[in-house]
Amino acid sequence: MSTRQRIVSYETLAGAFEPYLVQAGTVVSGLEGTASEVPPASVMSQISIGLQVLELAKRNPDVMGGTEHEMASLLQTYFAERATRTAPGAGDGLEAKFDNTDLLGWIGSFFTWWKKIYPHPWQNPEPKPTTIANDYRIALFGDWGTGLYGAPVLARSIAADEKSFQLVLHLGDTYYSGDDAEIKERLLEPWPKVPGALNRTVNGNHEMYTGGHAYFNNALKHFSQSSSCFAFENNHWILACLDSAYADHDLYGEQVAWLDAIVAQGDNRRLILFSHHQPYSLLDVQGPKLVAKLSKYLENRKIFAWYWGHEHHCVLYDEHPAWGLFGRCIGHGGFPYFRETGFGDTPAKPTWARLDTKNLVPGAEVLDGPNPFIPGHEKEYGPHGYVVLELHGPRLNELVVDADGTLLRSQELGK
Questions:
Q1: Among residues 87, 115, 143, which one ends one of the domains?
Q2: Global pTM?
């Protein structure tokens, strides 16, 4: 069974670690091994925090779960791959199984692996945008890299679209922490196959948990993509894709200067931004670093629309009254996310729930409904899906589509 088909729950991790202190105590008291067999106290503390974070987030052990915590994600990645190597035939389900008879050796090898993680060198973006047609069609999805649930269905729907696409764009996050096997099996292999389309993927925080090496070396090479930030333009639009993950929820390096140069040469073209992280949210944390870096564009109402992922929901914000932009969270591509409890009973099919403005964040419509791709838990999790952007000269049509290809909403922005 591949890594793509393995999930790692808190219950399994906790069960594997349960005898650890006993084994460690035996080694130390009996002087049976070297000091390297028992990880340093700082490592044990970090692992303990990671387990605690996963415990707080747990709900259904038979469904993929995760957090925005680096150590928790690294434990899940390492455990899934270790289980696949040591016991590839263990069980018929998705849950990874592990033989804990060599637990001290396993933790030691995890520590060795973790110590070697460092950020991949930054790669500067191309100075000029890629020119695209004035009529242009984009398939857009985020937080999709699971290889499970609605993710492969979504990929088939995009590939089967009769109108096709010129750009297939992912807004980042390959789970659990974007290492070589996960990038290969959860991002590249199930990627929507659209003949003739340009394929691009934005950097996500989960890719950076392993330093971004598989993302920069494998994913970008596979797509002939030179950098984690890039831009497109035609006679009417500038589409700028930013890296908000290399520096977490921030813009690393000279990205703002790069964007300044593109916008300055873009005459009066409208600007659309794409990133993994959000500038603001009604359901998650805010993005003050992004807002500070791009404050002049916000205050001058230069940004027409901003699409992001990170939050595992589909949220269509009202036009921002101060900044004039249309904010869009498109993070419901493939990771299982719980429905908001305040929405009441699960509707029979996808629908839209209203969130009122709060804390200086505009009101929004949130996609609600069941997820038929999570057997046994359909009513607990929200639907997976993607967005289609259609550029027709100066007009932008936005279509929200269910993972199976069903159209859920269509509108022209700014009309």
A1: 115
A2: 0.94
